[in-house]
């Protein structure tokens, strides 16, 4: 039986409305209450019916939840319709100050949210810069990522990644060009990845014509998979130890929002001579994770958050590690390390300071 509320797209839509568009949702609820109080039943029927029908249409269009960005793109008509109802209800002569006050508040909240939304793009750009730097150290210049290793929480819609990496890497010079495609499983493209001409584009049009010119240059090489299975017998965690694997923090101080999350960055230096596989599909998968200590050296208990490696690590890579805030504000010590299975730490840890600011006056926006 079909269950609308169990669809991934419904979960994304409700989470987005309550987390990022909550004031539009609150305004819609207030408008519904006023229409009911004034017995404007026809207006109420139209408003509720349109809002529900439009939301269901958006949910069914991307029912797998495969494109959160597109779901967000289709939501502005809901806000526009809510604004029309708000103006109709509050534009009476005796309520101009109230309408002006609510409008100014909504404008302030919206402007702030526009500013805050830049954080996702900054993280995305940082990720692209890191994989480009990685790609320039290898000879192929054309690479395939495993979709499961993509940091999808800020990459959001990754279909353009092959073109983004090619364009961004070529800004310095055409000789620095690299491109990253992605797929799941990693052998999805088969013979296409072995072609030495052309590049792999988005999944709906993977075979993409390409010719070197004055702006771009890619060598006539095959694609290289840069995410390898940890279930492969060639990957032996016993090959790595503190003498040949080091984690160096790039930030002297890491700030994580109160009851939020942020990324800390470490440089992983592998001198073992063997690459570290990155697809966590073994019985005891390897991730990069962290511990938090208070200033007295006591570990702070919280749910363990594991981050998969972005790529296989041959010699060196700058890896982002997602950090969740402890429940209390204050200063802590953050220890980042590799972990295998449930609690098998590699003791190659990087330590840095962690700061959790107090509650922000903007936390309700």
Descriptive notes:
By secondary structure, this protein is α/β, with parallel strands linked by helices. It has 3 domains: 4-116; 122-225, no CATH class; 237-356, Immunoglobulin-like (Sandwich). It is built from 9 helices and 13 strands. Strands 7, 9, 11, 12 and 13 form a 5-stranded mixed β-sheet that branches. It has a 3-stranded parallel β-sheet with strand order 2-1-5. Helix 2 (22-37) packs across helix 5 (76-90), helix 3 packs antiparallel against helix 5 (76-90) and helix 7 crosses helix 9. The model has no long low-confidence stretch (mean pLDDT 89).
Spatial shape = globular
- Element pattern in H and E: HHHHHHHEHHEEEEEEEEEEEE
User: Which stretches are poorly predicted, pLDDT < 50 over at least 5 residues?
Assistant: none
Quickly count the domains: 3
Number of strands: 13
Radius of gyration, CA atoms, in whole angstroms: 25 Å
Looking at the overall shape, the CATH architecture of the largest domain is Sandwich
Strand coverage percent: 15-25%
Give the termini distance in whole angstroms.
38 Å
Number of helices: 9
Q: What is CATH's topology name of the largest domain?
A: Immunoglobulin-like
Mean pLDDT across residues: 89
Structural class: alpha/beta
The share of residues in helices is 25-40%
CATH class membership of the largest domain: Mainly Beta
The biggest beta sheet is recorded as: 5 strands, mixed
Output the CATH homologous superfamily of the largest domain. Immunoglobulins
């Amino acid at each position: 039986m079909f269950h609308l509320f169990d669809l991934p797209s419904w979960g994304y839509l409700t989470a987005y409305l309550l987390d990022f568009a909550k004031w539009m949702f609150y305004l819609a609820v207030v408008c519904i209450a006023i229409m009911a109080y004034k017995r404007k039943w026809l207006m109420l029927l139209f408003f509720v019916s349109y809002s529900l029908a439009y939301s269901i249409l958006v949910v069914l269009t991307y029912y797998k939840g495969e494109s959160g960005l597109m779901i967000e793109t289709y939501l502005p008509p809901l806000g526009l319709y809510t604004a029309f109802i708000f103006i109709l209800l509050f534009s009476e002569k005796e309520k101009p100050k109230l309408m002006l006050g609510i409008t100014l508040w909504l404008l302030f909240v919206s402007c702030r949210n526009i500013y805050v939304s830049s954080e996702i793009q900054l993280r995305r750009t940082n990720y692209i810069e890191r994989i480009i730097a990685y790609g320039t150290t290898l000879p192929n210049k054309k690479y395939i990522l495993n979709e499961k290793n993509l940091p999808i929480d800020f990459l959001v819609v990754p279909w353009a990644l092959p073109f983004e990496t090619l364009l961004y890497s070529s800004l310095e010079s055409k000789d620095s060009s690299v491109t990253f495609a992605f797929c799941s499983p990693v052998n999805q493209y088969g013979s296409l990845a072995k072609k030495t001409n052309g590049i792999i584009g988005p999944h709906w049009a993977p075979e993409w014509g390409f010719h070197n010119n004055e702006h771009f240059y890619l060598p006539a090489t095959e694609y290289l998979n840069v995410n390898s299975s940890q279930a492969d017998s060639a990957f032996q965690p016993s090959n790595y130890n503190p003498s040949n694997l080091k984690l160096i923090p790039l930030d002297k101080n890491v700030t994580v929002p109160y009851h939020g999350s942020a990324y800390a960055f470490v440089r992983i230096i592998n001198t073992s001579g063997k690459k570290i596989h990155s697809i966590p599909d073994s019985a005891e998968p390897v991730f990069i994770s962290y511990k938090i200590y208070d200033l007295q050296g006591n570990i702070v208990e919280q749910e363990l958050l594991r981050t998969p490696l972005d790529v296989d690590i041959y010699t060196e890579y700058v890896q982002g590690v997602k950090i969740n805030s402890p429940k209390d504000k204050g200063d802590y010590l953050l220890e980042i390390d590799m972990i295998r299975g449930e609690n098998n730490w590699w003791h190659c840890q990087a330590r840095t300071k962690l700061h959790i600011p107090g509650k922000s006056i903007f936390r309700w926006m």
